[in-house]
């Protein structure tokens, strides 16, 4: 096991907010950047009929405490682990959207014995390219200069495939509102944590766990071609490509996404 530690008192002060529904095999769902656990409301309701579904607010997101120290993806994974220990969850399936996928990969590397499967929902095991890192830096500069209102207006809608934006305008507005409520310091710290995360392709190559990949054909944040490079690396892979879908399949292709989750979980059961 790889050890990444921060002061235990700090962890206790930053206890993650969560929602816990249903019983059975534990499914842990982790949201993406500038989102919160409400992202999973429909999915949690559907899956909790047969599973114990936990949704988590990452540090500074939703109802979780603000970031009080330097933040890394590994620290986020450790905080999720602390919560699961508190809730007596010994084994789970962990699926993350975008940033949440980075956290799930770190968890799979550090605490693999606590997983019976994991999934990347519009996410990647590749580290940021130099180009992407520069884009992260520009994001930080923009937020610090213009604030969260301007960032929300520029950031959220492009996550959706253009053809889907009009019919999902209410969902886009809700996500913008969530984004606007974020503290600048949290968004900056999280952006830098994403920029500096390590490559975890070896985690996919070496795992003997089943891995779910849900991919948007038109995803600009995690391009289809890069997703296809990683999704057949695990021996036990489950790949679902959502057509005419950007980065937000849980909204753009809700029923297909729920079906993909169910098929994956049934295989683990």
In words, what does this structure look like?
Helix 9 links the parallel strand 6 (211-216) and strand 7. This protein is of the alpha/beta class. It has a 7-stranded mixed β-sheet. The chain has a single domain (8-128, 197-268), classed as Rossmann fold (3-Layer(aba) Sandwich), CATH 3.40.50. Mean pLDDT is 94; it is low at 1-12. The chain has 11 helices and 7 strands.
Question: Which structural traits does this protein have?
Answer:
single chain, 269 residues, alpha/beta, Rossmann fold, seven-stranded mixed beta sheet, 11 helices, 7 strands, 14% strand, globular, disordered N terminus
Q: What would you say about this model in short?
A:
By secondary structure, the chain is α/β, with parallel strands linked by helices.
Q: Helix segment count?
A: 11
Please give the alpha-carbon distance between the first and last residues.
26 Å
- The CATH first-level class comes to Alpha Beta
- Rg measurement, Å: 17 Å
Our count of domains comes out at 1
The CATH superfamily is identified as Alpha/Beta hydrolase fold, catalytic domain
How is the CATH topology named? Rossmann fold
